[in-house]
Amino acid sequence: MSHIAIVGAGLIGRAWAFVFARAGFQVRVWDMNQTVLDNLDADIAAMIAQTEPFGQAGADPRATAANIKGVATLEQALDGAILVQESGPEVLSIKRELFARLDAIAGAQTILASSSSALLASSFAEGLPGASRCLVGHPVNPPHLVPVVEISPAPFTAPEVTQRARQIYAQAGQVPVMLKREIDGFILNRLQAVVLAESLRLIEQGYVDVQGLDDTIRHGLGRRWAFMGPMETINLNAPGGAVDYLGRYGPMMAGLAETSARDEAFTPTAAQAVGAAFSAISTPDTVRARQDWRDSELAALAQHLSSRAAQNNQE
Amino acid sequence: MSHIAIVGAGLIGRAWAFVFARAGFQVRVWDMNQTVLDNLDADIAAMIAQTEPFGQAGADPRATAANIKGVATLEQALDGAILVQESGPEVLSIKRELFARLDAIAGAQTILASSSSALLASSFAEGLPGASRCLVGHPVNPPHLVPVVEISPAPFTAPEVTQRARQIYAQAGQVPVMLKREIDGFILNRLQAVVLAESLRLIEQGYVDVQGLDDTIRHGLGRRWAFMGPMETINLNAPGGAVDYLGRYGPMMAGLAETSARDEAFTPTAAQAVGAAFSAISTPDTVRARQDWRDSELAALAQHLSSRAAQNNQE
């Protein structure tokens, strides 16, 4: 019986289980920590309670819950799985050992995908007998509310495996982004890193405060980036499209990029300045409460964007 | 009679007129090109037709239109204005000359604000008798659908003028971001520039294609950035908030920023690669049609975000 196996059921692993289950996949969940498995049903129920009002818990939320089963052994999780989504610790030695174990247990057709954001598939899968079926499928937190998944194969990953992974993620309702070559940070965190560096610098050097920085994105660039990427954005900002835009404004943008911040911007002083702006939300309880707010807003936004896409398709 | 004066009524100037008028301000519009003035009523009517279905044309769209009057002379526009929003060409010599003229005509209490994205107030207002009432109020295109306005005073701008400008923009429903020191590109375009540089590099060097790059933002980072900034985003990505986040992930992010692209990424090859991805939308007509789609999506998103904010306030 083909299904998805979730290995490691922390926040990310559970959200992956939810993603696949609400799309109709059967999901088997294993975690080395029995308490995580004991709490699984309750945690999934809480995710359904939060997302159902926004239509993000699947066509039949009870079926979503029923599609997820915790299992007692890694072998049970993997037996017959079409794809394993591994969401364990981001430590190279642990990841290498876990992938060796997954590779030894899983059937030959099973894809082994890691949620890793920090490690490349070539680093943890090299030399395994089944290296060619290993890759990274990097989600954003939380994956059930932010649909992108970066698919980053190692040079030794079979192209057929990469394509199958892409189809499975798309069938699960995610948006796969295909990396053609490995690079640290993949695409998403590289883009986040340059925004963080320049933001921290502008704050620390006193050009703008934290609230102003966030407002500039939230009420400015982020409005367009919620439904278009930065490339389509520039394509619409000159009468002749992107080439016209880069001809007109490229030199100005290059000048700004030339003086942009890099790693030196990540100072303790900058961190303190940001922390001070969020002093009321800086403990596990207050952060968790605000994460709940964030997740409700993400669910509402997902519902809004789906509804707009449906309307645009009808027109 | 106090009102807002719009000087230069191209796309940006007209959108500014609309912003102020829908908030209940009286608006006087002047442009050196009579054709622009002749078309003003029709252009405003078109903006109302597009935004009214999304609740973005003001409480009474007919009143919004009625609040906007084209006038034949600069003197008529400026007489009694509380703020002049200048949206003329981005050429220093023209801007300097225009500001000298505005300063000579406008009453002493009138704020002179430029929409400039490329020029600093210190460059075009220095030495004017009324230099202390000059500043930049930089909008995003289109300002009636993207509310941020970057307020960038020169060192010689009176703090009282800056605060009054902030109040007027806020009263008009915009989100003012206060720059504490001048910097090329202000905040928004500096952040856009680093994203463009890294994006163009990742595309040109073959890590990802244009669609994948845009999907990474649109279905990834942009989802959170539409209602939180990047600083609040990281504040929610570690149990102890931003300081905890930067302690855990700062070194990784710094490593990615260290190897990020700068001005060298703005190559003709990269521009061609982006252009090729949008070859169907690269002429004035096709770009304009897609801009209409963008503006409808921005209006729908503005309505969604207002509705969410109202619900969160009620809870």
UniProtKB/TrEMBL annotation, chains A, B:
**Its Enzyme Commission number?**
1.1.1.35
User: Top EC class per UniProt?
Assistant: oxidoreductase
Q: Which InterPro entries match?
A: 3-OHacyl-CoA_DH_NAD-bd, 3HC_DH_C, 6-PGluconate_DH-like_C_sf, 6PGD_dom2, NAD(P)-bd_dom_sf
List the keywords (alphabetical): Oxidoreductase
Q: Which residues form the 3-hydroxyacyl-CoA dehydrogenase NAD binding domain?
A: 3-180
Source species, domain of life: Bacteria
Keyword Transcription regulation in annotation: no
Report the leader peptide range.
Answer: none
Reply yes or no: does the keyword 4Fe-4S apply: no
Among SUPFAM superfamilies, the record links this protein to: 6-phosphogluconate dehydrogenase C-terminal domain-like, NAD(P)-binding Rossmann-fold domains
Q: Where is the 3-hydroxyacyl-CoA dehydrogenase C-terminal domain?
A: 185-247
The UniProt family comment states: Belongs to the 3-hydroxyacyl-CoA dehydrogenase family.
Which protein, by its recorded name, is this?
3-hydroxyacyl-CoA dehydrogenase
Q: Which organism is it from?
A: Paracoccus methylovorus
